[in-house]
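Q: What would this chain look like folded?
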Amino acid sequence: MTAWQDVEQAAPEFARRVQALFDAHRHKTIATLRADGSPRISGIEVVFENGELTFGSMPNARKGTDLHRDPRFALHSATVDPVEGAEAQWPGEAKISGRAVAAGEGTGPDGDQFRADIAEVVHTHLDDAAKMLVVEWWTPTHGLRRVERQ
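A: My prediction, written as structure tokens:
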């Protein structure tokens, strides 16, 4: 299992930037898989604490049912547009994908709670001159990588 603390230890500055993007806004988006395999997008809140990334689902919510059946997920931070003329100040966007691990026994009265078993973390942003798109990504197998595109 790869916890958030593993990302923090392996790439601390990268992890700080990604967490800041997730913490900047309350609402994020999660993609789960429906029973027929098609994607479902839902709003969600996430918490980084004690070296874990956790999130929940209200009682009987579809995303919780999806995650119990097929634990694969993709989280996306809130997206804000770059300000024209100040594109270099755009913080970018972050994504985390992996598998949801139930953080308790079944569905409780407050819903389901999950911990993230992280497969990939991505930060997409612009370079300092706002001329290149920068994609940085971390995986447990390959560590931190980076590519720039015009």
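The mean pLDDT is 94.
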